Amino acid sequence: DIVYLDSHFVPKEQAKISVFDRGFLFADAVYEVTAVIDGQLIDFNGHFQRLQRSCKELGLSLPITKELLVDVHHELIEKNNLHEGLIYLQITRGADSSRFFDFPSSSVPSTIVAFVQHSTVVNHPNAKKGISVISVEDIRWQRCDIKTVALLAACLAKHHAHQQGADDAILIKDGYITEGSSSNFFIVNRDNEIITRPLSQDILPGITRQAIIQLAQEEGLKITERRFTLDEAKKAKEAFISSATTLIWPVISIDNEDINQGAVGHLSQRLRDIYLDKAL
Ligand code: PDD
């Protein structure tokens, strides 16, 4: 594969960064993951806007224009013959061997890395069969609205879920579900009302989440942004997660308790179909 690193396209074996890079030392970096289907970027504008916001919140000046970034993404798709999968982009506050915690001088250039991942998005088996999740305490920091690479809590949650034989973890804060370990979380109640947690500093403003809210409204479906407890989720008619990597995956069990008798929910399936229709 060919990787983009600081204005150059290089074979992945040659894509090396400094041990003093602040992304490595302090997780002082932001990232985005954009889905690619049929060689096309999905919702790139949304991802770029969120990247701008993440940078702004961290006082990190975005070192590349939108036009150039689009070009980089397209070149990666072309050079790697990426038909379906993801593009990962990371921007760090650069390398500074002093290891001062404070920001380095503005003369230190940021590091930009982007690479592709060949993966199944449209016909992923989990979309058909659904996934099992377990609940874990949300131990992340208080700015989960910024897409930083400080993902250790998410790694721990996912590892714990896999050890318990589940596919993923959902995170609980003060008794309420915030989101998935790397996704937003939705439930559907007995009145076919779709419910997801409102945006705040507790969750990432998912680009897929936003697209789902919009298309649900267009379809005349009832969609509400409010908090809900783990208990309410377990009693829900349906549940699903959303992200660029999964689009929508139905959730068929929470903490080993079946949702919808362990079958993929009708509305989850329909929303995924509509999302794919619109995206392509
Ligand atoms: N994760 N919430 C969290 C904590 C996430 O990490 C993600 C995405 C989302 C969904 O956002 P979006 O719909 O914009 O992908 C919600 C990416 C895919 C990742 O870390 O791989």
TrEMBL record:
Q: Which GO terms describe its molecular function?
A: 4-amino-4-deoxychorismate lyase activity; branched-chain-amino-acid transaminase activity
Name its pathway: Cofactor biosynthesis; tetrahydrofolate biosynthesis; 4-aminobenzoate from chorismate: step 2/2; Amino-acid biosynthesis; L-isoleucine biosynthesis; L-isoleucine from 2-oxobutanoate: step 4/4; Amino-acid biosynthesis; L-valine biosynthesis; L-valine from pyruvate: step 4/4; Amino-acid biosynthesis; L-leucine biosynthesis; L-leucine from 3-methyl-2-oxobutanoate: step 4/4
Which reactions does this protein catalyse? 4-amino-4-deoxychorismate = 4-aminobenzoate + pyruvate + H(+); L-valine + 2-oxoglutarate = 3-methyl-2-oxobutanoate + L-glutamate; L-leucine + 2-oxoglutarate = 4-methyl-2-oxopentanoate + L-glutamate; L-isoleucine + 2-oxoglutarate = (S)-3-methyl-2-oxopentanoate + L-glutamate
Look up the record and give one Gene Ontology term from the biological process aspect. Answer: folic acid biosynthetic process
Instruction: Specify whether tRNA processing is a keyword of the entry.
Output: no
UniProt keyword Nucleotide-binding, yes or no: no
The name under which this protein is listed is Aminodeoxychorismate lyase
Q: Which organism is it from?
A: Proteus columbae
